[in-house]
Amino acid sequence: MKIYTRHGDKGNTQLIGSSMVSKDDNRVEAYGTVDELNSWIGYTRSVLGSQLATLDSELEEIQQLLFDIGRDLATLSDDKKHDYFFTDAICKKQTQWLEDAIDRYVEAAPAIDRFILPGGTPQSAALHVARTVTRRAERQIVTLQKQSEINPNTLVFINRLSDYFFAAARFANYTAGIQDVTYRNGNPVFKK
């Protein structure tokens, strides 16, 4: 497999099925952000440490699933050679898997009734960045689905994935004994 194709030299890229589009096409923006998220998760895994080893295997599975989602986003709905990989059955199973993990992490961490500031441990901060990149991918998928038919399962999973990262970030702080910092809601610390 060649690394370079020269398609990009003129600002174009090839979708699955040979269709060419501009590199700033909404479809490319959507699957490109999913790819960015996948890379960030790779970084996050590299800083987890032994206390959060359970997260490592979950994050690896998420990386695998994000490749499937990226593939579906890069496939036009009318492509006769390629079916969507992220089927209804796979989506249902994997979304339930995420929800089970979310429930475990929410149960473990102290209850909150206010917004929290992203941060705490480096691991928690990295998971919060993953959450925000996931939200950006979600917005781009919504934009894409307004103009093109796409696999609707991608949006379902990505929506739940941002919730997973929030719960996992809180769990990472809890595991390290770090308390989340709550949002002050307009109450200044420094007064004149």
From TrEMBL:
<dbReference type="InterPro" id="IPR036451">
    <property type="entry name" value="CblAdoTrfase-like_sf"/>
</dbReference>
<comment type="subunit">
    <text>Homotrimer.</text>
</comment>
<dbReference type="InterPro" id="IPR016030">
    <property type="entry name" value="CblAdoTrfase-like"/>
</dbReference>
<comment type="similarity">
    <text>Belongs to the Cob(I)alamin adenosyltransferase family.</text>
</comment>
<keyword id="KW-0169">Cobalamin biosynthesis</keyword>
<feature type="domain" description="Cobalamin adenosyltransferase-like">
    <location>
        <begin position="3"/>
        <end position="172"/>
    </location>
</feature>
<dbReference type="Pfam" id="PF01923">
    <property type="entry name" value="Cob_adeno_trans"/>
</dbReference>
<protein>
    <recommendedName>
        <fullName>Corrinoid adenosyltransferase</fullName>
        <ecNumber>2.5.1.17</ecNumber>
    </recommendedName>
</protein>
<dbReference type="GO" id="GO:0009236">
    <property type="term" value="P:cobalamin biosynthetic process"/>
</dbReference>
<keyword id="KW-0067">ATP-binding</keyword>
<dbReference type="InterPro" id="IPR029499">
    <property type="entry name" value="PduO-typ"/>
</dbReference>
<keyword id="KW-0808">Transferase</keyword>
<keyword id="KW-0547">Nucleotide-binding</keyword>
<dbReference type="GO" id="GO:0005524">
    <property type="term" value="F:ATP binding"/>
</dbReference>
<dbReference type="GO" id="GO:0008817">
    <property type="term" value="F:corrinoid adenosyltransferase activity"/>
</dbReference>
<comment type="pathway">
    <text>Cofactor biosynthesis; adenosylcobalamin biosynthesis; adenosylcobalamin from cob(II)yrinate a,c-diamide: step 2/7.</text>
</comment>
